[in-house]
Specification:
299 residues; alpha/beta; Rossmann fold; two-stranded antiparallel sheet; 13 helices
């Protein structure tokens, strides 16, 4: 029986979610941009197409959809299969640290566990409210903007080498009404920031090895290579960050940097560096913290 007859039988929200999850698994899609399985991804996309929040009562899943609603949902679910684009690119936004952010293929899709640290005020490591924060390799600006929301008196700089990423970050600055405290600056790591100094530097830089990049699932290849790949051991940009951080951190300042699954590569390159690897209640790893003083004494 032709597939369109099959989909005409989908009458409820639950039917559409189940159908989408089945098609996603059938197509062998990869998940890792906000969800980690076919069912959650189908649920997220279905409710978005229906203009419904994801926290609706379970009873609503039995609601009957109209023909036009079914068409809208199926279009989005099929696009996920045919394009293999992550869901966030298909709908143009994603939530990070409890805030919505615009995203497109000029930026990495926000998914860093650093969001958990922001919501916890970086405690117990950060002493007091920071006056100046730098979000280095900012992409969409999500980390820096979330910091600005969490610390209402902080001035925040978002730095990136990509003009496209800076355009997206400026859109998000405006979206959250933070033009008076947050600015986006073109900078190749620290080159472009002049002599600016900060109480806190937070960064999710490129750290994927070239070999790993060559094996990534199609979904990841929709993201900018510039935001992911960083040399044979993935540490090319991290090395520049460590080398330049001292000059841009104030006394007592902290550097927080994510290297994801490449902790071993980091420790091979800097075996004596006294970093603190942070733990997360909501999942995630590969984020370290180090003070300016420890950087000065060990680099």
């Amino acid at each position: 029986m032709p597939r369109h007859f099959e989909t005409d039988e989908l009458s409820s929200v639950r039917d559409l979610v189940r159908w989408g999850a089945s098609r996603f698994r059938e197509a062998g899609l990869h998940f890792g941009h906000g969800t980690d399985n076919a069912l959650d991804e189908a649920f997220f996309l279905t409710l978005h197409a229906l203009h419904l929040p994801t926290d609706i009562p379970a009873l609503y899943l039995e609601s009957t959809v109209t023909a036009s609603e079914r068409t809208a949902v199926l279009k989005l679910l099929r696009a996920r299969v045919t394009t293999r684009k992550p869901a966030a690119y298909l709908i143009g936004e994603i939530e990070f640290a409890g805030m919505p952010f615009h995203v497109d293929e000029r930026v990495l899709i926000p998914r860093s566990p650093i969001g958990e640290l922001i919501l916890a005020d970086f405690q117990p490591w950060l002493q007091g409210q920071p006056e100046r924060v730098l979000d280095l390799c900012t992409g969409s600006g999500c980390i820096g903007i979330a910091c600005a929301a969490q610390f209402p008196y902080a001035q925040v700089d978002l730095a990136d080498i990509s003009e496209g990423a800076l355009a997206v970050s400026r859109k998000n600055i405006k979206r959250h009404g933070l033009e008076d405290r947050v600015r986006a600056i073109k900078s190749d790591v620290f080159d472009g920031l002049g002599d600016a100094t900060y109480d806190l530097i937070v960064t999710n830089p490129p750290y994927v090895t070239t070999a790993e990049w060559n094996t990534l699932a199609t979904e990841y290849r929709h993201e900018p290579r510039l935001a992911l790949e960083a040399g044979h051991d993935g540490m090319d940009i991290v090395a520049r960050i460590l080398e330049g951080a001292v000059a841009h951190l104030r006394p007592g300042g902290l550097l927080i940097c994510e290297v994801g699954a490449f902790v071993e590569e980091f420790e091979v390159r800097w075996p004596q560096l006294p970093v603190t690897w942070l733990d997360f209640e909501r999942g995630g790893d590969g984020v370290f913290l180090i003070s300016r003083e420890d950087l000065v004494s060990h680099l």
